[in-house]
Design a protein that fits this description.
The protein has helices spanning 7-15, 28-34, 38-67, 76-98, 100-106, 117-128, 133-161, 173-188. By secondary structure, it is an all-alpha fold. It is globular and about 60 Å long.
């Protein structure tokens, strides 16, 4: 990783210019399915942010201090998924105990955070880009905030669309994908401000 790319630059870029959802299209299934209601979008976005913030640096530690010393780098996919699954289970149990309505509204999408490609993708990007521990922590937090920002924006737009006249052929997934494309183009407007390679 170039030395001029600071941890703050990675954090900012992971929210805007390198938004894991709108730039890499990772985590689209739950993004499109859950963004119908604002409360559910906020809840899932907060859960994804929590899991990304914790698992990305934790996977960095596992990779640096367990997999590399024992030449087990080829097991990173399995090990990263195990770490992610453990934290998703913790998040699920916490929501079930302290926020039953949110737990019920998230439904099947809460356990599916385990296989949310955005979360695994963040850990893999962290390895490929050779981030430090602090950079990995800020990258995970920024990716979560970016994902939360995108799903909340989509939820707000979809709420406005309920009163709009939409051609029947575009109702449902059609208009949602078009909106996601426009949102991705809007986030691309930040490109060139900070580049992360």
């Amino acid at each position: 990783m170039p030395s001029q790319v600071t941890a703050f630059a990675v954090f900012f870029a992971s929210i805007f210019t390198g938004n894991i959802l709108l730039t890499n299209y990772l985590g689209m299934c739950s993004f499109l399915a859950v963004s119908k209601e604002m409360k559910t979008s906020l809840g899932l976005g907060a859960a994804v942010t929590f899991v990304l913030t914790v698992t990305t640096p934790l996977n960095w530690l596992v990779y640096q201090y367990l997999l590399i010393p024992f030449n087990l780098e080829y097991l990173r996919f399995i090990v990263f998924i195990i770490v992610i699954a453990a934290f998703v289970q913790l998040t699920e149990m916490t929501l079930e105990r302290y926020s039953e309505p949110l737990y019920q509204s998230l439904g099947i999408f809460l356990p599916l955070i385990t296989v949310n490609c955005a979360i695994l993708g963040a850990s893999l990007f962290m390895v490929i880009r050779e981030y430090t521990f602090m950079t990995s922590l800020l990258f995970g937090l920024g990716s979560g905030i970016g994902w939360l920002l995108a799903i909340v924006a989509m939820s707000g737009i979809r709420a406005k669309l309920r009163t709009a006249k939409i051609p029947p052929a575009l109702e449902g997934p059609g208009i949602s994908l078009i909106i996601a494309g426009f949102m991705a183009m809007a986030f691309m407007g930040f490109s060139g401000m900070i580049a992360v390679s």
